[in-house]
Structures are given as structure tokens and as C-alpha cells.
Design brief:
alpha/beta; Rossmann fold; 22% strand; binds adenosine-5'-triphosphate
């Protein structure tokens, strides 16, 4: 259905190709998963299928990509729109209408489908993606995950034969991610749709894939195989595979179910043991306190009476469904919204009434869209400005970027960075200022597993130094690795607040893979399991 013949792509001004030696076929009716580190060219590869690369991005494509027999070099993206539906990493950049319902209908209108068909498909899709309650809402007023659902819905209504999705679950809560993947699987099985999707959180998708394409490095030719074949070789694997490697299971499990079947002997070895607690400082004084916080967004009460205390040295994960109010809480702590009632204090200041230059010494926010934080023309200039703003030694920010994600070039415009590279830059900019309270909104979108591990290490270092951290995240594995405490929001209210292990293990939605496989303990991470086995007398 999709054929790549010796494809390479070189962006203008780049020293080396972003993509090279791609020679492969995605058969009709398969779900094909594209994996690889941040910046290895996944988005570039996906972009060639719908013709966005190079028609819209610039650069040069060598070789040939055909979809349902059409050459994407001679067919413009709109001449492929009836066959290929593409959802990019940044939905906001692609929305053409203002409201949810109009956006779902737009693709069908451009193809001239009859009104009764459009009506029916809009209704079906609203139900399928849990968007019915939001149908009349302006897209600009949706939460990140709500927007991602609309973006996915807007391509589903067209019923394209090929779906190309770039990290389609990155902003979705765990339940919504499962639902979207179930929908995709049904399209593949029942309608013979061909799906090509890139994803970093393999724990969410690998068990659904028929084929995996792995890009081992920037400009390196892909390796293809069944999920089991590629997972046996790839350095980037989900926790369940890592656990399988540690425990010596063969074949390696890809799903929780397979792993549970193999886990009997491991459970016996772990019986009577407990996770070795990580040394961590005793929490200090509060760096942020909110009580009875009510915040309105338009007509909607996004937070209704939230209480939260964050202490120095503490890492708190904020979890909960899309639209629960996580981003609203973070941005209120950063002074971006004025509460309708209740109190909020950050480092002794009332955030929304404080001067920006006083507030930056107390709190730093990495927003859900890191682009909002970046304004210079090059990576180097952005880093120099961050050093200056924070009065840090020259080179501080650049070193942080390189630590988080090696291989980001100095002279690239932040706009042209890959998703993960841009996030690493935004994180470095905020970390350079070393504010006592760090707020991170979905800090792992686009990050590969090694980059995520380095981010966790850096954040742990900061908590050890007494910084307080609040991260809003749907990444249950990240919460398990990093957070001391988990706070769950639902419809603007706090519904759980307690030690990570207590909160996540009691909820199937938030439990990490290791907890689901090993059970009692509570074991949350592969590291805890290996440490305990090694320390065993
Ligand atoms: N429009 C562009 N102009 C110049 N360089 C670009 C452009 N788009 C991407 N690049 C570069 O090409 C490389 C590959 O980027 P791409 O977005 O394909 O990576 P990716 O594997 O999707 O990464 P991520 O997992 O972070 O999303 C990166 O080094 C990036 O900086
Ligand atoms: N600019 C806005 N105007 C009006 N309502 C908004 C606006 N931004 C968000 N909302 C609404 O406020 C509620 C809370 O949104 P928020 O972004 O805080 O949720 P979230 O928990 O961060 O969601 P997600 O997990 O999807 O990022 C949602 O119902 C959302 O639709």
C-alpha cells in the first residue's frame, strides 16, 4: 500500500540527510509502528507519505514514495487527501475551522461527500472519541488532549485507506489512548485500513503492531521486522520487555498478559522482598500552596476548590483525564490566571499579582507547547539568552541541552527542531534559571527512553538540591520513576493525593507495567526489581 524505494531526504542547509536508505513496503491492512530516538527522522519519514515532505517543509527528496500507486512527488498533498489521512505532532498548526464539529466535517466537505453521509460520520466520530460533550466548543478553548482527539477524529471521518499518525497518543490520558488504539485496530481488522504510526511510548502500542520499522540513528537506514524481532534488538523497549530481559523470559513478552503468564518464578523470587527505598531528602518548607482554588476558563469552572501544597525537595505528579484541569493548575501557579476565589502563594508571592521579574526567581513553567517559550532564531541564541536572563555562566543552557539530548545543532531554528529536540531546549531554558519551583506540563512528549531517563536524573538532582517539582503527565512510567507523590484531578477537583505507590497501584489506569506484571510489593519500576534481586542476601 505504501512503498518506499531508496528514499532519502535532506533539509535545506543541513550537512547530512535526515533520512537515508529507506527501502520498504507497508502492506495493505497492516498496523505498522515506526520507532526510533528523538530526531532520527520519524516525522520526516511520515511526512513523505502524505507529500508534506518535501512539498511544505522544503528540502530534497531522492528516491520514490508511492501510496496506492500514486507517486507523492508528482501528486500534491491535496491530490492524496482522499487516500491518506495525516495527523501531525502539532494539531493546532493544522486545524482549519474554529469549532469541533466543523473540524470533523471539513475533510469530508473538501471531498464533496453527501450531507447525510457527513452528518452520520460526524456523529459516529463524536461518540467514538468521547467528544460529544465538546461538539460546539471552539477549538482554541480545548485542553491539549481534547485537541489531539479532534485532530484524530478529523481524519477518521474521511475514511482514508491509509492513516499516518505522528505520536497520536502523546497528549492523551491512558484511557483515551487505549480507546484510540482500539479504534485503529478495528479499522485495520474490519476495513483493511493501513496504519503507519510513530510512537515513543512503546508500552502503549507495541502489542498492536503487525510490523515495526526502527530507525537506529539519524540518517541510518531502517531495520524492519515483527515486533518481537525488533524488540529483541532495539535499545529502546517498553518496561515489560526490559523486565523480560532481566528475568530471562523467552520469548520476550510484548503485552502485560504474556508477561503475567511468564512471571510466576519472578514473583516467587521477589516474595518477602520489598523495593529498596530511594534515598531522598526530607521535604522542606512549602514552595507553593493553594487552598480552595477556583479558576474559570471562559464559562467553565476548570478548577473547583483545589488545595495543594508542594514542599522543597518534593516531586509531585499531577494526573487525571484530559480536560481535568492539570494545565490550568500549573499555569495558575505560574501567575497566568487570576483565581475567581481561593488563595495561591508561590515562594511567598501571589503569582497573578506579582511582577514577572520577581516571579521568575520563584517559579519556572515549561508549557505543554514548548514553542510558546522559544523566541530566538537559533538554538545557540536561545541558549545565550537563557544564560543571560538567569545570570548563569555562559554555556550553562547549551550544556544542559546536550546532556538531555545529544546531537541538537547550534544553528537550527527552534521551529525546525524535532518535537523531542524542541522540548529538550525548552526544558534546558527553564532549568537554567533553577527556580525553586519547577512546573512541567507533559515533559516527555517526543522524548525517547534514554532522553527521558536523563531528564529523570536531572530532576532528581534538582529535588536533592531542594527544588520543588510539579509535573502534569499522562506518562505513568515517568510518574512511577520520578514522583514522590501523585495528585489526581477529576473535573477540576482533587480526588486523590498520596504517595506514588499507593495512588497508582490502586488504579488500573495509572499503574505502570511492572506493577501490573509483578503485582504485590508494590513494584513500580524495572530498576526496583533488579536492585532488590541484587541486594538479596
Ligand atoms: N523543516 C525542517 N528544516 C530543517 N531541519 C529539519 C526540519 N524538520 C526536521 N528537521 C531536522 O531533521 C531531523 C529529524 O527530525 P524529525 O522531526 O523527522 O525527527 P523525529 O524522529 O520525528 O523526532 P521526535 O521523536 O523528536 O519527534 C532533526 O535533526 C531536525 O532538526
Ligand atoms: N482557553 C480556554 N478557554 C476556555 N476553556 C478552556 C480553555 N483552555 C482549557 N479550557 C477548558 O478547561 C478545562 C481544563 O483544561 P486543562 O487544559 O487545564 O486540562 P488538562 O487536565 O491539562 O487536560 P489535558 O490532559 O488534555 O492536557 C477543559 O475542560 C478545557 O476544555
Amino acid at each position: 500500500m505504501i512503498r518506499f524505494a531508496d528514499v532519502s531526504v535532506t533539509y535545506s542547509g543541513a550537512a547530512a540527510p535526515a533520512l537515508h536508505g529507506v527501502d520498504l513496503t507497508v502492506p495493505e491492512g497492516e498496523l505498522c509502528l515506526l520507532v526510533g530516538g528523538s530526531g532520527t527522522g520519524k516525522s520526516t519519514l511520515l511526512g513523505t507519505v502524505g507529500g508534506l515532505v518535501p512539498h511544505f517543509t522544503g528540502g530534497t527528496l531522492h528516491g520514490r514514495v508511492t501510496v496506492a500507486g500514486r507517486d507523492t512527488r508528482t501528486h500534491k498533498p491535496r491530490e492524496l487527501a482522499d487516500v491518506v489521512g495525516t495527523v501531525g505532532q502539532d494539531p493546532l498548526a493544522h486545524f482549519v475551522t474554529d469549532t469541533v464539529e466543523d473540524e470533523l466535517a471539513y475533510g469530508m466537505e473538501s471531498l464533496g461527500l453527501p450531507p447525510e453521509v457527513m452528518r452520520r460520520r460526524v456523529e459516529e466520530t463524536l461518540d467514538l472519541l468521547g467528544l460529544a460533550a465538546l461538539r460546539d466548543r471552539p477549538i482554541a478553548e480545548l485542553s491539549g488532549g481534547q485537541r489531539q482527539r479532534v485532530a484524530i477524529g478529523s481524519v477518521l471521518t474521511v475514511h482514508p485507506r491509509v492513516l499516518v499518525l505522528d505520536e497520536p497518543t502523546s497528549a492523551l490520558d491512558p484511557g483515551a489512548a487505549e480507546e484510540v488504539l482500539a479504534v485503529l485496530q478495528r479499522l485495520v481488522h474490519d476495513l483493511g485500513t493501513t496504519v503507519l504510526l510513530a510512537e515513543h511510548r512503546l508500552e502503549r502500542v507495541v502489542q498492536y503492531a503487525d510490523q515495526v520499522i526502527w530507525l537506529p540513528g539519524p540518517g541510518e537506514p531502517p531495520v524492519t521486522g515483527t515486533p518481537a524481532e525488533v524488540m529483541a534488538r532495539s535499545p529502546m523497549v517498553p518496561p515489560v520487555v526490559e523486565l523480560g530481559r532481566v528475568a530471562g523470559w523467552s520469548p520476550l513478552p510484548l503485552s502485560i498478559r504474556d508477561a503475567r503468564r511468564a512471571a510466576g518464578p519472578l514473583r516467587e523470587r521477589l516474595a518477602g522482598l520489598a523495593p529498596v527505598p530511594r534515598p531522598r531528602p526530607a521535604p522542606g518548607d512549602p514552595v507553593a500552596e493553594a487552598a480552595g482554588l477556583v479558576v474559570r476558563r471562559g464559562a467553565l469552572e476548570a478548577l473547583c476548590g483545589v488545595g495543594l501544597t508542594v514542599r522543597a525537595g518534593e516531586a509531585v505528579a499531577l494526573m487525571g483525564r484530559n480536560g481535568a484541569g492539570k494545565s490550568t493548575l500549573l499555569s495558575t501557579l505560574a501567575g497566568l490566571h487570576e483565581p475567581a476565589s481561593g488563595t495561591v502563594r508561590v515562594g511567598g508571592l501571589v503569582p497573578h499579582r506579582s511582577r514577572p521579574r520577581d516571579l521568575v526567581r520563584k517559579v519556572g513553567l515549561v508549557p505543554q507547547e514548548p514553542r510558546d517559550l522559544l523566541y530566538a532564531d537559533t538554538v545557540a541564541a536561545e541558549c545565550a539568552a537563557a544564560d543571560q536572563d538567569a545570570q548563569a555562566a555562559p554555556g550553562t543552557c547549551r550544556t544542559l541541552v546536550a546532556q538531555l539530548l545529544p546531537g541538537v545543532a547550534d544553528d537550527v531554528h527552534p521551529r525546525d527542531l524535532s518535537e523531542g529536540q524542541r522540548l529538550a531546549l525548552a526544558l534546558a531554558v527553564v532549568l537554567t534559571a533553577r527556580p525553586p519551583l519547577l512546573l512541567l506540563d507533559e515533559p516527555t512528549r517526543g522524548l525517547d527512553y534514554p532522553a527521558k531517563a536523563r531528564l529523570v536524573a536531572e530532576l532528581r538532582r534538582l529535588t536533592a538540591l531542594g527544588h520543588g517539582i510539579v509535573l502534569a503527565t499522562h506518562d505513568v512510567e515517568l510518574a512511577a520513576e520520578l514522583a514522590d507523590r501523585v495528585v489526581v484531578l477529576a473535573d477540576g477537583e482533587v480526588v486523590a493525593d498520596g504517595p506514588t505507590a499507593d495512588v497508582v497501584v490502586s488504579s488500573p489506569a495509572f499503574a505502570p507495567q511492572v506493577a501490573k506484571v509483578v503485582g504485590e510489593g508494590p513494584w513500580l519500576t524495572v530498576r526496583q526489581v533488579t536492585d532488590a534481586l541484587e541486594a538479596r542476601p
